[in-house]
């Protein structure tokens, strides 16, 4: 009886997924880009967000997107690129490039958004940013600053400027899936459906969840449970 119930639930789930995917409407839920954006990893599905630290909508989306990225299967990854529409945006793009290089997005971005949007700190100014970064305690500001001062940092920021211009990014946040489809909302459910659309079109295998790391040590396991 239990087996039959599980099978029925599985069939129902598949049916619901099919209905959900069918609900995607071109022009309403997504649009096809006039020119595809090359992915960084060709064998996976890229979720690319063009954002700005000066953008209130990006600030509001940040916690939702950061949490949702953790649910991505093994064949999907996230990429963040800062838009550059004005000269001062290049300074913020340098910060975004440093965040990408250090992997500090989850820790640093909330503080960066708060400084720019809430506190009015001009982090586009290199001297102001350096002083601000050295004072941070919620994340490793010195690590971020080291990446900011690295040679590759300015190259990456200029690449962001070129992407913004070449692909005519008009607003933020702009979310691109598979280098081909632009999501027309901030609906994470629709985002997942677009990812599945790309997966199906490419003939990729079914999505596999990321493996859950098992904590072997008793003390570490208890600490992990306490932080949940």
TrEMBL record:
InterPro entries reported for this sequence: DSBA-like_thioredoxin_dom, DsbA/DsbL, Thiol_disulfide_DsbA, Thioredoxin-like_sf
Residue intervals of the DSBA-like thioredoxin domain: 92-194
UniProt entry keywords in alphabetical sequence: Disulfide bond, Periplasm, Redox-active center, Signal
Spans through the membrane: none
Compartment(s) of residence: Periplasm
Signal peptide per UniProt: 1-22
PANTHER family xrefs: THIOL:DISULFIDE INTERCHANGE PROTEIN DSBA (PTHR35891), THIOL:DISULFIDE INTERCHANGE PROTEIN DSBL (PTHR35891:SF3)
Family note: Belongs to the thioredoxin family. DsbA subfamily.
Record-given protein name: Thiol:disulfide interchange protein
Species: Vitreoscilla massiliensis
